[in-house]
Amino acid sequence: MQTVVLGTSGTTPQDVIDVARHGARVELSTEAVAALAAAREIVDALAAKPEPVYGVSTGFGALATRHISHELRAQLQRNIVRSHAAGMGPRVEREVVRALMFLRLKTVASGHTGVRPEVAQTMADVLNAGITPVVHEYGSLGCSGDLAPLSHCALALMGEGDAEGPDGVVKPAGELLAAAGIAPVELKEKEGLALLNGTDGMLGMLIMALADLDTLYKSADITAALSLEALLGTEKVLEPELHAIRPHPGQAASAANMLAVLKGSGLTGHAQAGEAPRVQDAYSVRCAPQVAGAGRDTMAHALLVAERELAAAVDNPVVLPDGRVASNGNFHGAPVAYVLDFLAIAAADLGSIAERRTDRLLDKNRSHGLPPFLADDAGVDSGLMIAQYTQAALVSETKRLAVPASADSIPSSAMQEDHVSMGWSAARKLRTAIGNLNRILAVELYAATRGIELREGLTPAPASRAAIEALRAAGVQGPGPDRFLAPDLAAADAFVREGKLVAAVEQVTGPLA
Q1: How far, in Å, are 225, 294, 487 from residue 469 at the CA level?
Q2: CATH topology of domain 205-313+344-509
Q3: Mind listing the UniProt keywords for this protein, alphabetically (predicted)?
Protein backbone atom coordinates (compact mmCIF):
# COMPACT_ATOMS: atom_id res chain seq x y z
CA MET A 1 0.00 0.00 0.00
CA GLN A 2 1.22 3.49 -0.84
CA THR A 3 2.50 5.69 1.98
CA VAL A 4 2.34 9.47 2.21
CA VAL A 5 4.97 11.07 4.45
CA LEU A 6 4.01 14.41 5.99
CA GLY A 7 6.70 16.98 6.67
CA THR A 8 6.50 20.60 7.79
CA SER A 9 6.06 22.18 4.35
CA GLY A 10 2.61 20.97 3.39
CA THR A 11 1.52 18.33 0.91
CA THR A 12 0.35 17.86 -2.66
CA PRO A 13 -3.06 17.45 -4.33
CA GLN A 14 -2.14 13.90 -5.33
CA ASP A 15 -1.31 13.03 -1.71
CA VAL A 16 -4.79 14.18 -0.70
CA ILE A 17 -6.39 12.06 -3.43
CA ASP A 18 -4.29 9.03 -2.48
CA VAL A 19 -5.25 9.21 1.20
CA ALA A 20 -8.89 10.22 0.71
CA ARG A 21 -9.85 7.93 -2.13
CA HIS A 22 -7.27 5.17 -2.26
CA GLY A 23 -6.54 4.52 1.41
CA ALA A 24 -2.84 5.43 1.34
CA ARG A 25 -1.09 5.19 4.71
CA VAL A 26 0.17 8.32 6.45
CA GLU A 27 3.49 8.72 8.28
CA LEU A 28 5.02 11.70 10.08
CA SER A 29 8.55 12.61 9.07
CA THR A 30 11.31 13.00 11.64
CA GLU A 31 11.32 16.70 10.75
CA ALA A 32 7.61 17.00 11.53
CA VAL A 33 7.92 15.23 14.89
CA ALA A 34 10.77 17.56 15.89
CA ALA A 35 8.76 20.64 14.85
CA LEU A 36 5.76 19.40 16.82
CA ALA A 37 7.86 18.92 19.95
CA ALA A 38 9.50 22.35 19.64
CA ALA A 39 6.18 24.15 19.22
CA ARG A 40 4.72 22.26 22.16
CA GLU A 41 7.51 23.47 24.43
CA ILE A 42 6.50 27.04 23.58
CA VAL A 43 2.84 26.36 24.40
CA ASP A 44 3.73 24.65 27.67
CA ALA A 45 5.87 27.63 28.69
CA LEU A 46 3.03 30.05 27.96
CA ALA A 47 0.55 27.85 29.79
CA ALA A 48 2.68 28.10 32.93
CA LYS A 49 2.55 31.90 32.92
CA PRO A 50 -0.15 33.91 34.72
CA GLU A 51 -0.94 36.08 31.65
CA PRO A 52 -3.94 34.87 29.57
CA VAL A 53 -3.18 33.56 26.06
CA TYR A 54 -6.03 32.95 23.62
CA GLY A 55 -6.63 29.25 23.01
CA VAL A 56 -4.23 28.27 25.78
CA SER A 57 -5.70 29.78 28.93
CA THR A 58 -8.89 31.53 27.79
CA GLY A 59 -12.32 30.69 26.52
CA PHE A 60 -13.10 30.77 22.81
CA GLY A 61 -14.80 33.12 20.39
CA ALA A 62 -17.01 35.60 22.23
CA LEU A 63 -16.00 33.85 25.49
CA ALA A 64 -12.31 34.66 25.07
CA THR A 65 -12.46 37.27 27.86
CA ARG A 66 -12.51 34.59 30.56
CA HIS A 67 -9.18 33.42 31.96
CA ILE A 68 -9.24 29.67 32.62
CA SER A 69 -7.41 28.28 35.64
CA HIS A 70 -4.94 25.38 35.33
CA GLU A 71 -7.26 22.81 36.87
CA LEU A 72 -10.00 23.53 34.31
CA ARG A 73 -7.91 23.60 31.11
CA ALA A 74 -8.16 19.90 30.24
CA GLN A 75 -11.91 20.19 30.68
CA LEU A 76 -11.88 23.32 28.51
CA GLN A 77 -10.25 21.44 25.62
CA ARG A 78 -12.64 18.49 25.92
CA ASN A 79 -15.60 20.82 26.12
CA ILE A 80 -14.75 22.76 22.97
CA VAL A 81 -14.71 19.52 21.01
CA ARG A 82 -17.91 18.20 22.53
CA SER A 83 -19.85 21.43 22.21
CA HIS A 84 -18.63 22.16 18.68
CA ALA A 85 -19.51 18.65 17.46
CA ALA A 86 -22.98 19.96 16.67
CA GLY A 87 -23.47 18.89 13.05
CA MET A 88 -26.81 17.82 11.66
CA GLY A 89 -28.18 16.17 8.55
CA PRO A 90 -26.97 13.29 6.37
CA ARG A 91 -23.51 11.80 6.74
CA VAL A 92 -20.74 13.27 4.63
CA GLU A 93 -18.98 10.90 2.24
CA ARG A 94 -16.08 8.81 3.56
CA GLU A 95 -13.58 10.32 1.12
CA VAL A 96 -14.45 13.83 2.28
CA VAL A 97 -13.91 12.91 5.93
CA ARG A 98 -10.58 11.25 5.17
CA ALA A 99 -9.45 14.34 3.27
CA LEU A 100 -10.62 16.50 6.18
CA MET A 101 -8.62 14.46 8.71
CA PHE A 102 -5.51 14.26 6.54
CA LEU A 103 -5.44 17.99 5.87
CA ARG A 104 -5.88 18.84 9.54
CA LEU A 105 -2.96 16.52 10.28
CA LYS A 106 -1.00 18.30 7.54
CA THR A 107 -1.38 21.62 9.40
CA VAL A 108 -0.67 20.01 12.77
CA ALA A 109 2.54 18.51 11.33
CA SER A 110 3.72 21.97 10.27
CA GLY A 111 4.75 22.70 13.85
CA HIS A 112 2.68 25.90 14.01
CA THR A 113 -0.20 24.59 16.13
CA GLY A 114 1.40 23.52 19.40
CA VAL A 115 -0.17 20.05 19.32
CA ARG A 116 1.91 17.30 20.94
CA PRO A 117 3.60 14.70 18.68
CA GLU A 118 1.58 11.89 20.26
CA VAL A 119 -1.71 13.53 19.29
CA ALA A 120 -0.51 13.91 15.70
CA GLN A 121 0.53 10.27 15.67
CA THR A 122 -2.92 9.23 16.89
CA MET A 123 -4.47 11.18 14.01
CA ALA A 124 -2.28 9.22 11.59
CA ASP A 125 -3.09 5.93 13.34
CA VAL A 126 -6.85 6.54 13.00
CA LEU A 127 -6.49 7.23 9.27
CA ASN A 128 -4.31 4.16 8.80
CA ALA A 129 -6.78 1.97 10.69
CA GLY A 130 -9.54 2.95 8.26
CA ILE A 131 -11.63 4.55 11.02
CA THR A 132 -13.80 7.36 9.64
CA PRO A 133 -15.68 9.62 12.08
CA VAL A 134 -19.32 10.34 11.33
CA VAL A 135 -19.49 13.91 10.03
CA HIS A 136 -22.76 15.61 9.13
CA GLU A 137 -23.74 17.80 6.17
CA TYR A 138 -24.52 20.95 8.14
CA GLY A 139 -22.36 22.69 10.73
CA SER A 140 -19.70 24.75 8.97
CA LEU A 141 -19.85 28.43 8.05
CA GLY A 142 -16.40 28.22 6.48
CA CYS A 143 -14.90 30.58 9.03
CA SER A 144 -12.98 29.77 12.17
CA GLY A 145 -12.53 26.78 9.91
CA ASP A 146 -14.91 23.91 9.25
CA LEU A 147 -15.75 23.83 12.94
CA ALA A 148 -18.46 21.23 13.39
CA PRO A 149 -17.04 18.75 10.83
CA LEU A 150 -13.55 18.93 12.36
CA SER A 151 -15.03 18.68 15.86
CA HIS A 152 -16.70 15.39 15.00
CA CYS A 153 -13.28 14.12 13.87
CA ALA A 154 -11.62 15.35 17.06
CA LEU A 155 -14.40 13.74 19.11
CA ALA A 156 -13.50 10.37 17.62
CA LEU A 157 -9.84 10.89 18.61
CA MET A 158 -11.09 11.25 22.18
CA GLY A 159 -12.94 7.95 21.85
CA GLU A 160 -16.35 9.60 21.78
CA GLY A 161 -19.10 9.87 19.20
CA ASP A 162 -19.62 7.48 16.28
CA ALA A 163 -17.35 6.39 13.46
CA GLU A 164 -17.35 3.99 10.54
CA GLY A 165 -14.97 1.07 10.78
CA PRO A 166 -12.90 -0.37 7.95
CA ASP A 167 -15.75 -2.80 7.28
CA GLY A 168 -18.19 0.06 6.69
CA VAL A 169 -20.15 -0.52 9.90
CA VAL A 170 -20.84 2.47 12.15
CA LYS A 171 -20.01 1.86 15.82
CA PRO A 172 -19.07 3.95 18.86
CA ALA A 173 -15.65 5.46 18.17
CA GLY A 174 -14.24 4.15 21.44
CA GLU A 175 -14.96 0.56 20.39
CA LEU A 176 -13.26 1.05 17.03
CA LEU A 177 -10.18 2.63 18.61
CA ALA A 178 -9.91 -0.23 21.10
CA ALA A 179 -10.23 -2.84 18.34
CA ALA A 180 -7.41 -1.12 16.45
CA GLY A 181 -5.22 -0.85 19.56
CA ILE A 182 -5.36 2.96 19.57
CA ALA A 183 -5.55 4.81 22.89
CA PRO A 184 -7.92 7.81 22.94
CA VAL A 185 -6.16 11.15 23.30
CA GLU A 186 -6.42 13.33 26.41
CA LEU A 187 -6.25 16.88 25.14
CA LYS A 188 -4.09 19.53 26.77
CA GLU A 189 -3.84 23.30 26.42
CA LYS A 190 -4.64 24.58 22.91
CA GLU A 191 -5.02 21.11 21.39
CA GLY A 192 -8.80 21.04 21.21
CA LEU A 193 -8.85 24.35 19.40
CA ALA A 194 -6.02 23.34 17.06
CA LEU A 195 -7.86 20.21 15.96
CA LEU A 196 -10.92 22.06 14.68
CA ASN A 197 -9.74 25.46 13.42
CA GLY A 198 -9.02 25.01 9.69
CA THR A 199 -10.36 25.13 6.14
CA ASP A 200 -9.66 21.43 5.67
CA GLY A 201 -13.09 20.20 4.59
CA MET A 202 -13.62 22.77 1.88
CA LEU A 203 -10.01 22.37 0.70
CA GLY A 204 -10.29 18.59 0.51
CA MET A 205 -13.48 18.87 -1.53
CA LEU A 206 -11.85 21.45 -3.82
CA ILE A 207 -8.93 19.11 -4.55
CA MET A 208 -11.20 16.16 -5.29
CA ALA A 209 -13.44 18.38 -7.44
CA LEU A 210 -10.44 19.43 -9.51
CA ALA A 211 -9.51 15.78 -10.07
CA ASP A 212 -13.05 14.96 -11.18
CA LEU A 213 -13.29 18.03 -13.40
CA ASP A 214 -10.02 17.17 -15.12
CA THR A 215 -11.69 13.99 -16.40
CA LEU A 216 -14.96 15.76 -17.17
CA TYR A 217 -13.40 18.54 -19.22
CA LYS A 218 -11.57 15.98 -21.36
CA SER A 219 -14.84 14.07 -21.65
CA ALA A 220 -16.65 17.26 -22.68
CA ASP A 221 -14.13 17.87 -25.46
CA ILE A 222 -14.80 14.35 -26.69
CA THR A 223 -18.60 14.59 -26.55
CA ALA A 224 -18.48 17.99 -28.28
CA ALA A 225 -16.36 16.47 -31.06
CA LEU A 226 -18.75 13.53 -31.39
CA SER A 227 -21.73 15.90 -31.60
CA LEU A 228 -19.94 18.00 -34.24
CA GLU A 229 -19.33 14.83 -36.21
CA ALA A 230 -22.90 13.58 -35.89
CA LEU A 231 -24.15 17.01 -37.05
CA LEU A 232 -21.77 16.96 -40.07
CA GLY A 233 -20.14 20.11 -38.72
CA THR A 234 -16.86 21.61 -39.82
CA GLU A 235 -13.65 21.01 -37.93
CA LYS A 236 -11.99 24.01 -39.56
CA VAL A 237 -12.89 26.20 -36.55
CA LEU A 238 -10.57 24.04 -34.46
CA GLU A 239 -7.41 24.89 -36.38
CA PRO A 240 -4.64 26.05 -34.01
CA GLU A 241 -4.02 29.32 -35.88
CA LEU A 242 -7.51 30.52 -34.95
CA HIS A 243 -6.92 29.90 -31.27
CA ALA A 244 -3.40 31.31 -31.21
CA ILE A 245 -4.76 34.80 -31.90
CA ARG A 246 -6.87 34.62 -28.72
CA PRO A 247 -4.23 33.11 -26.46
CA HIS A 248 -6.25 31.56 -23.65
CA PRO A 249 -4.43 28.30 -22.79
CA GLY A 250 -7.58 26.36 -21.97
CA GLN A 251 -9.23 27.28 -25.26
CA ALA A 252 -6.24 26.07 -27.26
CA ALA A 253 -6.15 22.81 -25.29
CA SER A 254 -9.86 22.09 -25.85
CA ALA A 255 -9.64 22.86 -29.56
CA ALA A 256 -6.59 20.60 -29.90
CA ASN A 257 -8.41 17.79 -28.09
CA MET A 258 -11.44 18.07 -30.36
CA LEU A 259 -9.27 18.17 -33.46
CA ALA A 260 -7.41 15.05 -32.31
CA VAL A 261 -10.69 13.18 -31.80
CA LEU A 262 -11.96 14.18 -35.25
CA LYS A 263 -8.78 13.32 -37.16
CA GLY A 264 -9.64 11.11 -40.13
CA SER A 265 -13.41 11.64 -39.95
CA GLY A 266 -15.49 11.11 -43.05
CA LEU A 267 -18.44 12.98 -41.55
CA THR A 268 -17.05 16.44 -40.83
CA GLY A 269 -17.84 18.99 -43.52
CA HIS A 270 -20.07 16.55 -45.39
CA ALA A 271 -23.13 18.16 -46.95
CA GLN A 272 -26.46 16.35 -47.23
CA ALA A 273 -28.02 16.04 -50.66
CA GLY A 274 -29.66 19.32 -51.60
CA GLU A 275 -27.97 21.16 -48.74
CA ALA A 276 -25.35 23.84 -49.36
CA PRO A 277 -22.02 23.37 -47.57
CA ARG A 278 -22.10 25.11 -44.19
CA VAL A 279 -19.69 27.93 -43.56
CA GLN A 280 -20.52 28.15 -39.85
CA ASP A 281 -22.04 25.85 -37.26
CA ALA A 282 -24.25 26.96 -34.38
CA TYR A 283 -22.56 28.51 -31.36
CA SER A 284 -22.98 25.39 -29.21
CA VAL A 285 -20.79 23.54 -31.72
CA ARG A 286 -18.52 26.28 -33.01
CA CYS A 287 -17.77 27.85 -29.62
CA ALA A 288 -17.23 24.60 -27.70
CA PRO A 289 -13.48 25.27 -27.21
CA GLN A 290 -14.10 28.80 -25.98
CA VAL A 291 -16.56 27.67 -23.30
CA ALA A 292 -14.69 24.55 -22.22
CA GLY A 293 -11.43 26.47 -22.41
CA ALA A 294 -12.67 29.16 -20.05
CA GLY A 295 -13.57 26.44 -17.60
CA ARG A 296 -10.12 24.91 -17.93
CA ASP A 297 -8.52 28.27 -17.14
CA THR A 298 -10.81 28.58 -14.13
CA MET A 299 -9.55 25.19 -12.95
CA ALA A 300 -5.95 26.36 -13.34
CA HIS A 301 -6.65 29.32 -11.06
CA ALA A 302 -8.46 27.09 -8.55
CA LEU A 303 -5.49 24.71 -8.51
CA LEU A 304 -3.15 27.61 -7.76
CA VAL A 305 -5.32 28.55 -4.75
CA ALA A 306 -5.43 24.92 -3.61
CA GLU A 307 -1.64 24.55 -3.81
CA ARG A 308 -1.14 27.73 -1.80
CA GLU A 309 -3.58 26.45 0.81
CA LEU A 310 -1.80 23.08 0.92
CA ALA A 311 1.41 24.92 1.81
CA ALA A 312 -0.35 26.89 4.55
CA ALA A 313 -0.67 26.31 8.29
CA VAL A 314 -4.25 27.33 9.10
CA ASP A 315 -4.87 27.72 12.83
CA ASN A 316 -5.61 30.42 15.38
CA PRO A 317 -3.55 31.22 17.33
CA VAL A 318 -0.38 29.99 15.61
CA VAL A 319 3.07 29.29 17.00
CA LEU A 320 5.61 31.41 15.10
CA PRO A 321 9.30 30.55 14.64
CA ASP A 322 10.32 33.37 16.98
CA GLY A 323 8.35 31.79 19.82
CA ARG A 324 5.31 34.04 19.74
CA VAL A 325 1.80 32.59 19.84
CA ALA A 326 -0.19 35.03 17.73
CA SER A 327 -3.86 35.45 16.91
CA ASN A 328 -4.72 35.79 13.22
CA GLY A 329 -7.51 35.42 10.67
CA ASN A 330 -5.99 32.78 8.40
CA PHE A 331 -8.87 30.42 9.10
CA HIS A 332 -11.19 32.54 6.95
CA GLY A 333 -12.25 30.44 3.98
CA ALA A 334 -12.72 33.22 1.42
CA PRO A 335 -9.88 32.20 -0.95
CA VAL A 336 -11.17 28.64 -1.18
CA ALA A 337 -14.85 29.59 -1.18
CA TYR A 338 -14.48 31.93 -4.14
CA VAL A 339 -12.89 29.33 -6.42
CA LEU A 340 -15.39 26.67 -5.35
CA ASP A 341 -18.16 28.99 -6.47
CA PHE A 342 -16.27 29.90 -9.63
CA LEU A 343 -15.97 26.21 -10.54
CA ALA A 344 -19.70 25.72 -10.01
CA ILE A 345 -20.37 28.50 -12.52
CA ALA A 346 -18.02 26.91 -15.05
CA ALA A 347 -19.60 23.47 -14.54
CA ALA A 348 -23.08 24.91 -15.09
CA ASP A 349 -22.07 26.57 -18.34
CA LEU A 350 -20.33 23.46 -19.64
CA GLY A 351 -23.48 21.45 -18.91
CA SER A 352 -25.61 24.11 -20.56
CA ILE A 353 -23.72 24.08 -23.87
CA ALA A 354 -23.66 20.26 -23.92
CA GLU A 355 -27.44 20.17 -23.52
CA ARG A 356 -27.86 22.60 -26.44
CA ARG A 357 -25.86 20.28 -28.68
CA THR A 358 -27.99 17.33 -27.58
CA ASP A 359 -31.18 19.21 -28.35
CA ARG A 360 -29.84 20.05 -31.80
CA LEU A 361 -29.11 16.36 -32.47
CA LEU A 362 -32.73 15.48 -31.65
CA ASP A 363 -34.43 18.23 -33.68
CA LYS A 364 -35.01 17.14 -37.29
CA ASN A 365 -35.10 20.79 -38.36
CA ARG A 366 -31.55 21.41 -37.12
CA SER A 367 -29.84 18.01 -37.21
CA HIS A 368 -29.10 18.00 -40.96
CA GLY A 369 -30.82 14.77 -41.89
CA LEU A 370 -31.03 12.79 -38.66
CA PRO A 371 -34.43 11.28 -37.75
CA PRO A 372 -36.59 13.11 -35.18
CA PHE A 373 -35.30 12.41 -31.65
CA LEU A 374 -32.95 9.84 -33.22
CA ALA A 375 -35.92 7.47 -33.15
CA ASP A 376 -36.11 4.21 -35.08
CA ASP A 377 -39.67 4.82 -36.33
CA ALA A 378 -40.56 8.34 -35.25
CA GLY A 379 -44.12 8.57 -34.01
CA VAL A 380 -44.24 4.93 -33.02
CA ASP A 381 -40.90 5.44 -31.25
CA SER A 382 -40.05 8.51 -29.16
CA GLY A 383 -36.31 7.88 -29.29
CA LEU A 384 -34.29 10.08 -26.95
CA MET A 385 -37.00 12.72 -26.41
CA ILE A 386 -37.22 12.23 -22.66
CA ALA A 387 -33.52 11.62 -22.20
CA GLN A 388 -33.16 15.27 -23.19
CA TYR A 389 -35.83 16.21 -20.61
CA THR A 390 -33.71 14.52 -17.96
CA GLN A 391 -30.63 16.31 -19.22
CA ALA A 392 -32.47 19.65 -19.17
CA ALA A 393 -33.59 19.05 -15.58
CA LEU A 394 -29.99 18.38 -14.58
CA VAL A 395 -28.85 21.54 -16.35
CA SER A 396 -31.50 23.62 -14.62
CA GLU A 397 -30.50 22.33 -11.18
CA THR A 398 -26.82 22.88 -11.93
CA LYS A 399 -27.55 26.48 -12.87
CA ARG A 400 -29.23 26.97 -9.48
CA LEU A 401 -26.17 25.46 -7.82
CA ALA A 402 -24.04 28.08 -9.60
CA VAL A 403 -25.49 30.81 -7.36
CA PRO A 404 -22.49 31.66 -5.16
CA ALA A 405 -22.53 30.59 -1.54
CA SER A 406 -19.61 32.91 -0.75
CA ALA A 407 -21.73 36.00 -1.43
CA ASP A 408 -23.64 35.22 1.76
CA SER A 409 -22.60 35.72 5.38
CA ILE A 410 -24.47 35.19 8.64
CA PRO A 411 -22.87 36.57 11.83
CA SER A 412 -22.21 34.08 14.62
CA SER A 413 -20.69 33.78 18.10
CA ALA A 414 -22.48 36.83 19.52
CA MET A 415 -21.15 39.00 16.65
CA GLN A 416 -17.50 38.14 17.38
CA GLU A 417 -17.43 36.13 14.17
CA ASP A 418 -19.40 38.67 12.18
CA HIS A 419 -18.30 37.74 8.65
CA VAL A 420 -18.00 34.18 7.37
CA SER A 421 -17.14 32.56 4.01
CA MET A 422 -19.74 29.80 3.56
CA GLY A 423 -16.96 27.85 1.87
CA TRP A 424 -18.20 24.48 3.12
CA SER A 425 -21.58 25.16 1.50
CA ALA A 426 -19.82 26.17 -1.72
CA ALA A 427 -17.93 22.87 -1.68
CA ARG A 428 -21.01 20.77 -0.98
CA LYS A 429 -23.00 22.25 -3.84
CA LEU A 430 -20.02 21.91 -6.19
CA ARG A 431 -19.93 18.16 -5.50
CA THR A 432 -23.59 17.95 -6.53
CA ALA A 433 -22.93 20.08 -9.61
CA ILE A 434 -20.10 17.78 -10.69
CA GLY A 435 -22.34 14.73 -10.39
CA ASN A 436 -24.94 16.50 -12.50
CA LEU A 437 -22.36 17.52 -15.11
CA ASN A 438 -21.24 13.91 -15.44
CA ARG A 439 -24.82 12.84 -16.17
CA ILE A 440 -25.33 15.71 -18.63
CA LEU A 441 -22.26 14.67 -20.61
CA ALA A 442 -23.39 11.04 -20.49
CA VAL A 443 -26.65 12.00 -22.21
CA GLU A 444 -24.77 13.95 -24.88
CA LEU A 445 -22.47 10.97 -25.39
CA TYR A 446 -25.48 8.68 -25.74
CA ALA A 447 -27.13 10.95 -28.31
CA ALA A 448 -23.99 11.79 -30.29
CA THR A 449 -22.86 8.18 -30.67
CA ARG A 450 -26.33 7.18 -31.83
CA GLY A 451 -26.33 10.08 -34.29
CA ILE A 452 -22.99 8.98 -35.75
CA GLU A 453 -24.20 5.41 -36.15
CA LEU A 454 -27.29 6.64 -37.98
CA ARG A 455 -25.13 8.33 -40.64
CA GLU A 456 -25.15 5.34 -42.97
CA GLY A 457 -22.43 5.21 -45.58
CA LEU A 458 -20.20 7.72 -43.77
CA THR A 459 -17.13 6.69 -41.79
CA PRO A 460 -16.47 8.29 -38.40
CA ALA A 461 -13.01 9.15 -37.11
CA PRO A 462 -10.95 6.28 -35.66
CA ALA A 463 -11.13 7.87 -32.17
CA SER A 464 -14.91 8.16 -32.49
CA ARG A 465 -15.16 4.51 -33.46
CA ALA A 466 -13.06 3.57 -30.44
CA ALA A 467 -15.40 5.55 -28.15
CA ILE A 468 -18.50 3.94 -29.66
CA GLU A 469 -17.08 0.42 -29.45
CA ALA A 470 -16.06 0.89 -25.80
CA LEU A 471 -19.46 2.36 -24.94
CA ARG A 472 -21.26 -0.57 -26.55
CA ALA A 473 -18.95 -3.01 -24.77
CA ALA A 474 -19.95 -1.33 -21.50
CA GLY A 475 -23.56 -2.33 -22.14
CA VAL A 476 -24.92 0.88 -23.64
CA GLN A 477 -26.96 -0.11 -26.68
CA GLY A 478 -26.98 1.63 -30.03
CA PRO A 479 -29.83 2.71 -32.36
CA GLY A 480 -33.03 0.66 -32.52
CA PRO A 481 -36.65 0.59 -31.39
CA ASP A 482 -37.63 2.17 -28.09
CA ARG A 483 -36.52 0.38 -24.94
CA PHE A 484 -36.16 1.04 -21.22
CA LEU A 485 -33.64 3.90 -21.33
CA ALA A 486 -32.71 4.38 -17.67
CA PRO A 487 -30.25 1.43 -17.54
CA ASP A 488 -28.49 2.68 -20.69
CA LEU A 489 -28.20 6.19 -19.27
CA ALA A 490 -26.90 4.86 -15.95
CA ALA A 491 -24.28 2.79 -17.75
CA ALA A 492 -23.24 5.81 -19.83
CA ASP A 493 -22.97 7.86 -16.63
CA ALA A 494 -20.63 5.27 -15.09
CA PHE A 495 -18.65 5.05 -18.36
CA VAL A 496 -17.88 8.77 -18.22
CA ARG A 497 -17.35 8.96 -14.44
CA GLU A 498 -14.89 6.07 -14.39
CA GLY A 499 -12.78 7.70 -17.11
CA LYS A 500 -13.52 4.97 -19.66
CA LEU A 501 -14.53 7.44 -22.37
CA VAL A 502 -11.24 9.30 -22.08
CA ALA A 503 -9.27 6.05 -21.91
CA ALA A 504 -10.94 4.65 -25.05
CA VAL A 505 -10.23 7.78 -27.07
CA GLU A 506 -6.66 8.19 -25.82
CA GLN A 507 -5.82 4.73 -27.16
CA VAL A 508 -6.17 6.34 -30.59
CA THR A 509 -5.22 9.98 -30.02
CA GLY A 510 -2.59 9.62 -27.32
CA PRO A 511 -2.90 11.66 -24.11
CA LEU A 512 -5.40 14.52 -24.30
CA ALA A 513 -4.56 17.87 -22.73
Answers
A1: 16, 31, 18
A2: Fumarase C; Chain A, domain 2 (1.20.200)
A3: Cytoplasm, Histidine metabolism, Lyase
